[in-house]
Amino acid sequence: MHVVIINGSPRVRKYSNTDKIIQSFVKGLEKTGATYDLYSLSSRKEWDAAREAFLTHDNILFALPLYVECVPSLMLEFLETLPTARKQPAKLSFILHGGFDEGHQLRLGERFLQSLPAQLGCTYNGCLVKGGSFTIRTSGAKMAERIVKPYVAMGRSFAEHGNFFTPEATKFTGPERYPWLVRVLASITIKLIVNKNFEKFAKQWGCTRPLNDKVY
Q1: How far is CA 72 from CA 7, 135, 174, 178, in A?
Q2: pLDDT tens across 69-114, in order?
Q3: Could you give the CA distance from residue 160 to residue 158 in angstroms, rounded to a whole number?
């Protein structure tokens, strides 16, 4: 198996949680002898090569983060440059991740991705859905590795089964919705701890005004 992987995140690779997920995923691919090519849309210099690979290969995977229920605009811009006529049939798969832990937070994004393959002359090949990726960048190296490590097994499963329609892929999402008590405790934690951490990260990244500051 050879897979063309396109990173749809607008972040450059150094800061891309999606890239870290992909790097873990391809370790599983390689364990089965599968090969891959990787293109990052954050670098427009790679767009021509990514477009040509999309049109000439039969196994394509887009990996992307969900921003407030939206597919990144950069990826949508790239998709608009793709012709619907293909040089050969292709299967189109997706890795969709986001900051929220619960699976239902990503389902609208998944439904949109399910509609894309037909518009691009491809066959839908499944979507691997997983939340809880926000802290990959902000955690230490060990914690970040722990978050992305499960993707190794999913890379191997994808290579062995050829799609994301497996029970393993369904189970990988985790809880669709947390019990009410967990949600209450989470909201308290956000108010007491997470917001302070946001302020800390903002200062580290050069922000000088309050996070709740308003333009007008």
Answers
A1: 11, 19, 23, 26
A2: 789 999 999 999 998 788 788 999 999 999 888 888 899 999 999 9
A3: 5
With a CB cutoff of 8 Å and minimum separation 6, the contacts of 8 are 18, 41, 62, 63, 64, 65, 71, 72, 74, 75, 78
Hey, what are 178's tokens?
A: 């947390």
Q: How many angstroms separate the CA atoms of 165 and 130, rounded?
A: 14
What interhelical angle do 47-56 and 73-80 show, nearest 10? 60
Amino acid, res. 110: E
Q: What's the pTM?
A: 0.84
3-state SS string for 74-112:
HHHHHHHCCCCCCCCCCEEEEEEECCCCCHHHHHHHHHH
Using a 10 angstrom Cβ sphere, with 0-12 exposed, 13-18 middle and 19 or more buried, the burial of residue 192 is exposed
- Report whether 106 contacts 100 (CB < 8 A): yes
pLDDT, tens digit (0-9, with 9 covering 90-100), for 41-79? 999 999 999 999 999 999 999 999 997 778 999 999 999
97, 110 contact by CB (below 8 A):
no
> CA–CA separation, 206 vs 91, rounded Å?
43
Query: Residue 194 above 70 pLDDT?
Result: no
